[in-house]
Amino acid sequence: MRVFTATLATESNSFSPIPTTLESFETGVYFPSGTHPDEPRLTTSQLPVLRKLAKERGWTLIEGLCTFAEPAGLTTRHAYETLREHILGELEAAMPLDMVVLGLHGAMIADGYDDCEGDLLARVRAIVGPDVPVGGEFDLHCHLTKAMIENADILVGYKEFPHTDHTERAVELVELTAAAAERRVRPVMSVFDCRMIVSAPTSRQPMRGFVDRIKAMEGKNGILSISLAHCFPYGDVEEIGARVLVVTDGDKAGGDALAERLGREFYAMRRELAPPYHTIDGALDHALAGKGGPFVLAEPCDNAGGGAPSDNTEILRAMIERGIGNAALGPIWDPQAAGFCHGFGKGATVRLRFGGKAGAASGQPIDAEVTILETIKDHRQTFAGSTISLGDSAAIRVGGIDVLLVSRRNQAMAPDMFSGCGIDPLAKKILVVKSTNHFHAAFAPIAKEVFYVETGGPLPRDYSRIPFTRLSREVWPLHPDPLGMG
């Protein structure tokens, strides 16, 4: 069996000031044909899975370009069209094929293309024809569009938030697409539009139980796969919103009914899905009053994983003004300040301006005397079997607070983000992490308590504050009850 695979993915924040350029992909995850390591990289997880199965089953695997750019603003037309045409050229050269497996995101927007994944899949379908199964793995923070459904045979999304199951879902996708290619199953997809914009961590109830119940349904009664598309709240496109996707073995009517039933259950939980958010002072007061530590304070409003710059200084300034010590915060994206620290060297005490650079929602820079605790070239953190570069990084101390400065924009994933740069996270009373929920898998086990803080960063947790212009249907919370369920 001849199999082609490639990845083209990013998450596009329509309101981010940071453009996603060709260089964003080339300096992010960028593996030309045959160069991908055996270690998975989230959106490229299908490739290591395919390599393993190809060896075991005697398949011929043709590897195309695999690339992912850290979430930011709109992708330039030049970047998208260049990468798309590169992959389509590899696909044409690989023909004839028995199946195609793609790594996608589902929330990629480019200049002139509101639905990059739908566009890419349509062009793939035009090349391979109607009889070659096309499968795609997608991030649950996606826009599950009509074009994606119409042009793929099987789509499988991550079930976990944080996305610790990307390899597991890749195995699921590859096995199902292979079964379709071998005519052992006849996959059909059913979708229900939940008409809501939500954030739904699976690290807490009720989402944890809901996902576990969905997983238990798969493999029974002709149900091949169930995915929940939570949506990406900061993509200003017409089809934004949560959806339920059910893939059945030829049972369209049954799939439609199940998708609607699960979708209405999902919708009924909408007010309970997001964690409670504290004010900055309320969160700090709570942590300081508690015994032991570390107390982990998450700052989703400045999460690079949602396209934010990750250089907002509001919570750090409050901590400095309150004289809080025995704390750490990171990562702050500031390549210039990190570079200055590498120039000064470990142990130097200098005046430094850092943070507050990318836009109005970044706040004002911090100007302070700092001690440089450590400098690391190509500093890395781990996440779900992958290593993620934070670039040349520096740990500094301002007052009693240790701050991690990074040159490659990324969110907080694991405590080794701190420890690998000379900051002991276990010794701190307070850890502030710039992340929505990907931090939770690795930080929760070391935390005395985890709670979430609303700051003035560019990703407001109140979605009614987002200035959408493209919505043409009513969705919650912009509308109180678009499904009329109370």
Tally of domains: 2
Largest sheet: 9 strands, mixed
Which range does the strand content fall in? 25-35%
CATH topology of the largest domain: Rossmann fold
DSSP helical segment count: 13
What's the mean pLDDT score?
97
Give keywords.
486 residues; alpha/beta; Rossmann fold; 9-stranded mixed sheet; 18 strands
Q: What's this entry about, in short?
A:
The protein has helices at residues 22-26, 46-57, 77-94, 116-128, 146-151, 166-181, 207-217, 252-268, 280-289, 314-321, 335-344, 416-419, 440-443, and strands at 2-9, 29-31, 60-68, 99-103, 134-138, 154-157, 187-193, 223-229, 243-249, 277-278, 295-298, 325-333, 349-354, 366-383, 386-398, 400-406, 430-433, 449-453.
SSE layout and pairings?
Blueprint: E1 2-9, H1 22-26, E2 29-31, H2 46-57, E3 60-68, H3 77-94, E4 99-103, H4 116-128, E5 134-138, H5 146-151, E6 154-157, H6 166-181, E7 187-193, H7 207-217, E8 223-229, E9 243-249, H8 252-268, E10 277-278, H9 280-289, E11 295-298, H10 314-321, E12 325-333, H11 335-344, E13 349-354, E14 366-383, E15 386-398, E16 400-406, H12 416-419, E17 430-433, H13 440-443, E18 449-453
Parallel strand pairs: 1-3, 1-4, 4-5, 5-6, 10-18, 11-17, 11-18, 12-16, 12-17
Antiparallel strand pairs: 2-3, 7-9, 8-9, 13-14, 14-15, 15-16
Domain Microcystin LR degradation protein MlrC N-terminal: 2-288
Organism: Marinimicrococcus flavescens
Keywords: Hydrolase, Metal-binding, Metalloprotease, Protease
